[in-house]
Amino acid sequence: MGRRRNYGRPINGIIVLDKPAGVTSNGLLQQVKRTFFANKAGHTGSLDPLATGVLPICLGEATKFSQYLLDSDKGYNSTFVLGAQTDTADADGEIQATQDASHITKKDVEKALAQYRGDIMQVPPMYSALKHNGQPLYKLARKGVEVEIKPRAVTIFEFELLDFRPGKLAEVDVKVLCSKGTYIRSLAVDIGHDLNVGGHVSVLRRTQAGAFTLEHAHTVESLEEERGEQLANVLDYHLMPMDKAIDDLPKLDLDDSSAHYFMQGQAVMDGRVYRLGDEGDTIRVFNEQGQFYGIGTITDEGTVAPKRLVNYT
Asked: Contact 52/206 with Cβ under 8 angstroms?
């Protein structure tokens, strides 16, 4: 059986989507791939179907750097409902228990939030894509299989109370800036547990993923409408440079000779590397004309060795 042909354009860049609620991240990825007629695409970490907001999609060679967006800090605005616990820790799940939250005050909530700022240990929800013995936890949860989930270290840089609406089912609007791997649903569950009333997420909107914010985001509908019956390249001006995903890394511009050997997979000597970082650090590499060549690693010999190269052919 022959190899499957890879249809589409060899286009490189990042398009930032404003994901709507009720759709999967992979479904949105496939829509974008068709709209841009791209031969390769990948997202940078799934958002729950309930969630909306920033979802960067990497096209072409940009997929080589998607891991850096997976590892980046994230920002969210969310609404927690206090007084009800669900099996999925969000409003898409079945209610398991309720408890009158009328006595909860804004001061109570602020005190609870304060315990989760900084470095914390967090238990991910059962309904998540994390794997146990090769099986996603959500598949085990759907079968009614319970497994022990070990706490993980995460960092909550900001956890701000935006609004509080008291009642039997009290609502708490929060702003969160956190490290990779943080589950906002787990924060809602933990806050509800601390207040002895249970809690879950009813609204979740990602406002930031690494360098990308809602200001960069487009809806799939707006992209499809703009393209209409035209060729896909009419949308290319929306693409952001693929190195935008790693723009926090130091930058090195190589002369043409060094750039040539670097692109051949060879480490090249450059006296400036130690001003950019230490041995083992990763840097962005460009040629003299400003074309992005990929990322390299600083060696103990004062060279920069190719780590991941862009293929422009």
From this structure: yes
What range defines the domain where residue 30 resides? 13-71+212-244
Q: Is 220 found in the same domain as 278?
A: no
Task: Give the residue among 22, 19, 54, 67 at the shortest CA–CA distance from 246.
Answer: 67
The per-residue b/e assignment along 94-133, b for 16 or more CB within 10 angstroms, e otherwise, is eeeeebebeebeeebbeebbeebeeebebebbbbbeeeee
Instruction: List the structure tokens of 42.
Output: 């990948």
Name the residues annotated as catalytic.
48
Model confidence, pTM: 0.90
- Per-residue pLDDT tens digits for 230-260: 999 999 999 999 999 898 999 999 999 999 9
What is the CATH number for 148? Answer: 3.30.2350.10
C-alpha distance from residue 170 to each of 6, 200, 201 (Å): 51, 11, 12
